[in-house]
Design goal:
Residues 1-19 form the signal peptide. InterPro entries: DUF3078 (IPR021428). This is DUF3078 domain-containing protein. Keywords: Signal. The radius of gyration is 26 Å and the shape is flat. A 12-stranded antiparallel barrel has the order 1-2-3-4-5-8-9-10-11-12-13-14. The chain folds into 2 domains: 1-30; 32-284, Porin (Beta Barrel). The protein is 9% helix and 62% strand. It has 285 residues and is mostly beta strands. The protein contains 1 helix and 14 strands. 19% of the residues are buried. The chain has one helix at 2-28, and strands spanning 33-46, 59-74, 77-92, 99-116, 119-129, 134-135, 141-143, 149-162, 165-178, 198-215, 218-229, 238-248, 253-264, 268-284.
């Protein structure tokens, strides 16, 4: 009996040690990288037959959206990168050309080194542009890919509570605005002077990110960017606010609401507003 108890004790102890070793190995092999995103296709349609007396035009519209995050965290280092891309068109019956309903490409990246508490020394980078040509109400071409393009780079301090809540403050931030020469031949465009293709600015930037769950399957994502140019009208703060709301129906279907407000008086002395609402087909990866 004593031998049996010794054998059982030995086997139990060996299995416990093996489990502990396995746990250590599993912990050591956890990757510091977290990657994931959502691809969404939003479809809208309206149709009227020839006998419909209420008036209206048949139309077909589609939008694609990509929201992808790469987060790194190990020891005293953190690195958060977000890619936002969207494009959409609508075709109205009777019109020859389709019209653009959405068009944006944005990359945000912040590298941080631990300071104290939730604060990090940081370096931020931002790129914002579009994919396709844009036209005004008179169908004059006013933009195309990488024109305009906004580039930002600067050191600062990052306050990061989690991957879903952070604020980066950059008191010395360089910003460049790139515009093709065809848009500055007759005058200034997007703040770039006539005949030139580049504008340099030096100022302060604040970038905030907050994503939270309001109700089960209802997510709000807020992205705010503020910029003040020390070299020209520093009191005129440029603002870019984005709100993305996802009401998840199931794994593949959701209702998507997007709202964006931009104020940049170098481009136009008014708020630029973009709104999008539709049923989306999602693929998460």
């Amino acid at each position: 009996m004593r031998k049996i108890l010794l054998i059982i004790s030995f086997c139990f102890g060996a299995s416990t040690l093996s489990a502990q070793d396995a746990q250590v190995v599993a912990t050591d092999t956890i990757s510091p990288w977290k990657k994931g995103g959502t691809f969404t296709f939003i479809f809208n349609q309206s149709a009227f037959n020839n006998d419909w007396l209420g008036g209206g035009s048949s139309s077909l519209a589609g939008n694609i959206n990509l929201n992808y995050d790469i987060n790194y965290a190990k020891n005293d280092w953190t690195w958060d990168t977000k890619l936002l891309a969207a494009y959409g068109q609508t075709k109205i019956k009777g019109e020859v050309d389709a019209k653009k309903t959405d068009d944006r490409l944005e990359l945000n990246s912040v590298l941080g080194k631990k300071s104290v508490g939730n604060w990090y020394y940081s370096m931020m980078f931002n790129l914002r542009t579009q994919f396709d040509s844009g036209f005004d109400k008179e169908q004059r071409k006013i933009s195309h890919f990488f024109s305009p393009a906004y580039l930002q780079l600067g050191p600062g301090m990052l306050w990061k509570k989690s991957d879903n809540l952070s604020v980066n403050i950059s008191p010395v931030n360089s910003r460049g605005i790139i515009v093709h020469k065809e848009f500055t031949e007759l005058g200034s465009s997007y703040g770039v002077e006539q005949g030139k293709t580049f504008r340099y600015e030096l100022g302060a930037a604040v970038n905030a990110y907050y994503k939270f769950l309001v109700l089960e399957n209802v997510t709000f994502e807020n992205i705010l960017s503020l910029y003040s140019n020390y070299l020209d009208k520093p009191k005129n703060v440029d603002l870019n606010y984005q709100l993305n709301v996802t009401l998840k129906v199931n794994k593949y279907i959701s209702t998507n609401i997007a709202f964006q407000a931009i104020y940049d008086d170098d481009a136009i002395k008014a708020f630029q507003i973009r709104q999008l609402f539709g049923l989306g087909f999602n693929y998460s990866f």
